[in-house]
Amino acid sequence: MSISDFRKKKLLYVFNVFFDVNQSGEIDIKDFEQAIEKICTLRGWPAGSAKNQETYEEMLKIWEGLRSKADKDNDGQVSVDEWCIMWDAYAKDPSTVMDWQQRYMNFMFDLEDASNDGTIDAREFATVCSCYGTDRKECEEAFAKMSKVSVDEWCIMWDAYAKDPSTVMDWQQRYMNFMFDLEDASNDGTIDAREFATVCSCYGTDRKECEEAFAKMSKGQEEVSREEFAELWQEYFASEDPSAPGNYIFGNLSF
C-alpha cells in the first residue's frame, strides 16, 4: 500500500524543517553541520565546550546512521523518495526501528527538556521547534494538542492504579497532597467541613452537597487527617463499592 497524502505531508514536514536545513532538496552532512550550529547557539554551548562537542558527535552518529540506511544510491545524500521509503518500512514494522532513529528521538527529547527534569513543557517545546522556523504560537498550539490526555487514556491510567495502588505515579501523589494542602486552609494538618466545602464548591458543586459529602467521607468526624485523606483517595480511584467513604472526596454525592 502506498503512503497516503496525509502521512507523506507529515514526513515531508520533518524532512524540510528539521533535516534539510539549507533547503537544498536533499539531506547531507552540511545540513547536520548547520543544525549543530543552530542547536548550540540556541542552548548557548560555545565551540570547544563539552556540550558542543557532545552535540557534534551525537548528530554525526545520527547522520551516519541515516545515510547508511536511506542513501540507497550511495551519493552521500538522502532524497525525498529515499526518506519516504525508509519511513514507510518503519511504519509497516515499527519493531525494526533503526539505531539512528532511536538516537534522534532521544536527542530531540533531551534538547527540548532544557530543565533536565525528565519532561517537556510547552515553553521548552516551542523554544526548540520555533528555532527551526516554525511560528512560536503554532508550536504552543501543537504542544497543547500533542499533550492532550483522552478520556480513554485517563481511565486506563486510573484502572492500572486501582489494580495496583503501589504503582502510584509521582504526579498522582503530588496532586493528592496539593488538594489536601489546598483544603487545609488553617494549615493545622487536618481538613474540616468548612474548608472542604470552600474548595470543592469553587469547582461548581453545590456547597450544601459538599458539606454532606464531607460528613459521609469523614464518617461523622469533624476533621480528616492527611493519612486518612490518602486512604480515602485510594478508595475513590480503586474501590468498586458504591458506599465507600472515599467516593465523596471531591464533594459530589452521586455519579
From TrEMBL:
<dbReference type="GO" id="GO:0005509">
    <property type="term" value="F:calcium ion binding"/>
</dbReference>
<dbReference type="InterPro" id="IPR002048">
    <property type="entry name" value="EF_hand_dom"/>
</dbReference>
<feature type="domain" description="EF-hand">
    <location>
        <begin position="58"/>
        <end position="93"/>
    </location>
</feature>
<dbReference type="Pfam" id="PF13202">
    <property type="entry name" value="EF-hand_5"/>
</dbReference>
<keyword id="KW-0677">Repeat</keyword>
<dbReference type="InterPro" id="IPR018247">
    <property type="entry name" value="EF_Hand_1_Ca_BS"/>
</dbReference>
<protein>
    <recommendedName>
        <fullName>EF-hand domain-containing protein</fullName>
    </recommendedName>
</protein>
<dbReference type="InterPro" id="IPR050145">
    <property type="entry name" value="Centrin_CML-like"/>
</dbReference>
<feature type="domain" description="EF-hand">
    <location>
        <begin position="19"/>
        <end position="42"/>
    </location>
</feature>
<feature type="domain" description="EF-hand">
    <location>
        <begin position="100"/>
        <end position="135"/>
    </location>
</feature>
<feature type="domain" description="EF-hand">
    <location>
        <begin position="171"/>
        <end position="206"/>
    </location>
</feature>
<keyword id="KW-0106">Calcium</keyword>
<dbReference type="InterPro" id="IPR011992">
    <property type="entry name" value="EF-hand-dom_pair"/>
</dbReference>
